[in-house]
Specification:
This protein is α/β, with parallel strands linked by helices. It is built from eight helices and twelve strands. It has a twelve-stranded mixed β-sheet.
Length: 273
């Protein structure tokens, strides 16, 4: 049994070419910030070792909900750098990253491997950052990132200039932006049009609330009426089955079930002794 972390494996289907992502969800067991800081070095050492020894078929590292905003930046970097070259997705949501300054986040983002194409920064209260810090931070995102999830950061609570600077800071290689849950409905159509003119030039699709999407080049009326397609976001299973696999890394139970979310099936991991 790991002393400081809890792990779970999950099989997801992501919107990029409908590819499956084999994800490992890592949760730090000390939940209070005081305990987290007290055992930080031990937690980071154990977690980095675990990440580096994961099976090669793991393609996402999920570090969500671990209060990384309270952890030293160099220790977060140790976790990111521990990922193998097969990892294509990094989930950093629910970590209060707004507590870091621009230079710290830029350094962190800059260490994300060139193999990682999907970065999830949702639920980090990024609207609380200062505009110059935000610019510094997002200028550090690796150019190989093509899917950037900024959902539920309440960015619409900020000024138009804040959003424009954010978009101008993101490199042109990003093709998909997730902006759901950002209170953009508080902006007028004129403001949205003004802000979206400054989207990174490579962006092909922007996910918005209520199932709407925006595609640069679409008319305003078309942009308002477009919705997610089942091929891009959701797949419905009509069969249910359970399969147990006794593998070299532990005992897995695979459950396929009908769903309306990106999660199609789950693999739960139990450490053997």
């Amino acid at each position: 049994m790991f002393k400081y972390i809890d792990v779970k494996y999950t099989l997801l289907e992501h919107g990029i070419s409908n590819n499956f992502i084999f994800s490992v969800d890592i949760s730090f067991l000390p939940k209070s910030s005081e305990l987290l800081q007290q055992f930080e070095n031990e937690i980071i050492a154990e977690t980095a070792w675990f990440i580096n020894t994961l099976p090669d078929d793991v393609t996402e590292i999920n570090l969500s909900g671990n209060s990384l905003g309270d952890i030293q930046t160099n220790n977060i970097i140790r976790l990111i750098q521990a990922a193998k070259s097969n990892v294509a997705s990094l989930n950093l949501c629910w970590n209060e990253l707004y507590q870091k300054n621009g230079a710290q986040l830029a350094e962190l983002f800059n260490t994300i491997s060139g193999n990682i194409a999907i970065v999830n920064l949702s639920w980090n209260n990024l609207y609380l950052m200062k505009i110059d810090e935000l610019h510094h931070a997002f200028s550090g995102i690796n150019s190989n990132v093509i899917w950037l999830d900024l959902s539920w950061n309440y960015l619409g609570n900020q000024t138009n200039d804040f959003l424009i600077v954010l978009f101008l800071s993101i490199h042109s290689g990003v093709k998909t932006l997730d902006l759901r849950g950002n209170n953009l409905n508080q902006k007028t159509p004129y403001e949205i049009d003004l802000i979206f003119r400054h989207l990174p030039p490579g962006v092909e699709i922007v996910y918005l609330d209520d199932g709407k999407i925006y595609k640069p080049g679409s008319t305003k009326s078309n942009a308002a009426s477009q919705t997610y397609t089942s091929q891009e976001i959701t797949v419905t299973r009509t069969v249910s089955r359970t399969q147990s696999i006794d593998g070299p890394h532990g005992f897995f139970t695979r459950n396929d079930k009908q769903t309306n979310t990106e999660t199609l099936s789950q693999l739960y991991y139990e450490q053997k002794y």
